[in-house]
Fold:
Amino acid sequence: MRKKGVLLFLGILLLAPIVYSQSFSVDVGIINDTITFDQDAKFKLTISNNLAIDQLFRIKTFEYPMWDIRTDPLYNPITLFVPAAKSKDIQILVDPLGITTLGVYDVSVNVKSETQKEAINVPVRVNIVSPSAGKYVPTVILSIMMDPKIDPTRPIPIKIKLDNQNPLEYKELTVKLDSSLIKDVVKAKLNKKEKKIIELTKEIDPKTEPKEDTLVVSVLSGDSVIDTKVERIEVIEHKELTKEETSTKTFLKNTKNLKYTNVGNTKYAGNVQIESSFYTRLFTSSRPKGTFIKEGKDYYLSWDVDVPIGESIKIEITENYRPLLFIVLLLIIVGALYVSYRSPLILRKTATNIETKEGGVSELKVVLTIINRSRSTLKDIEIVDRIPKIIDLEKGLSIGTLHPSKVLKHEKYGTMVKWVIEELGPDDERVISYKIRSHLSILGEFTLKAAAAKFRFRGQEVITHSNSLGVSP
Structure:
C-alpha cells in the first residue's frame, strides 16, 4: 500500500503545473493535497523573476468564500519579494471553507506582479476525503471535448473523457449533461485506473436563435459528485434558404413558381437570383418585380428579400413569347398589305451631265427611270414632268428613247412634258431622258419637282410620283 501511495504521489507531482508569463513564472509543488473537511492542503509556490529588476508579488484567491488561502505564520496580504533574475519559495495553506462534498477540486491561486501589473492564475488540485476512507477516495477526472461553436442545423458531437485516478472500481457512474439546450444522463462502468471516452451525438431545434449557453457536465458515484466541468458554448448564426420550383408550360409561355423557405435560425435578409440572358429578359416578367443585373458576362434576375425564421416567400416568373409572335404576324400582315397596295410602278428621277457657268448651273440632263415591279403588264402609262419657268427644254435634240407626246408651256407654271408608254411588261424598265438649260446660271441649290405617272391597274386608276430632285453646282 505504501509503495502505491508513493507512486500516486509521484504521479501527482509530475502533473503539478508550471505557469509562465512574460515577466515571471510559477512552479507549484505539492506538500499535502489530500485532506478532510477540517484540514488545510499545503503547497509550495516557487516564483521565478525573469526580469533584470526586483519584483514584488501578491498572492490571493478569488474563490472566497468557498476557498481561502493563508500562510503560516500569517501574513495579510500575502506578498513575496523576489530579486532580479532570482527565484523564491513560499508555502500556502488552502482551506476548504464552504466545501461540503467529497471529491477533487481545482482551486485557482492568483499571483500578481505589483511591479509589472501582470497576473497569472495557478491551479492547485485538492482531494477532499472522508476521515475513514483512507487515501483512495473516488477520484475521477472529467474532461469535455467538443466544438463550443454549435450549428443548430447539424448534429453536435460530444466526447466525455473519464480518467480514474485511483485503484477503485466503479460498477456504475452517472454522467449528467445540463444546459438550456442539452440535457442527458449517461451510465458508465469504470475499472481501476481506467480511462474511458463516452461519445454522444446531440441535436437541438434547428430554429434555435444565436445565443450563448453554459454546459455543465458532472460525474457522480451514487449521490456524490466526483468531478464537475463547465463548458461555455454558443449557438452560431446559420443562414439558409431552401428553394422549391414548379413550372407550367403553355403555348409560347413558361411560368415558374419559386418558393424560398428560411430554414436557418435567424432572419434572412439578403439577395436571391436566378440565371437569365440578355434576350430572354425582353420577354420576362416577375411578381414581385425583380431587377436584371449583369455579373461579368452573365445576366441574372435578382430580388432583395427579408424572410423571418421558418417563413417563406413566393416568386412567380413568366417568360411570354406570345407578343413576339403577334409582332411577327403583324409585320407579315403589314408587309402583305404593303405589297398588295403599293404602286406596281417605280418612278425615279435623277440628274446627270450637270454643266456650270459663272459658278452656277447652266445645263443638265434629267433621267426618268420607269420600272414595272408587278407581275402584270401595265398599259397606257402617262408620264408628266414639269420644268420650272426659268429653265427651258432643249429643242432639236433627241430626248432619250421616247419622244414626248405633248409639250405645253405656261407663263406661270413653266413647261409641262408628257410621255405615253403603251405597254410595260413585268420587271421591264424604261428610261426617258431630256436636257434642260437655264436662262441664267443658277447659283446655289434648286429643286426640280417630282414627275407623275398615271395608269390603270386592276380596274383602278393609279398615280405614282417620283422623287423631287435637288440640283447644285
Observations:
- The radius of gyration is 54 Å.
- The chain is about 5% helix and 60% strand.
- The helical segments are 2-15, 322-341.
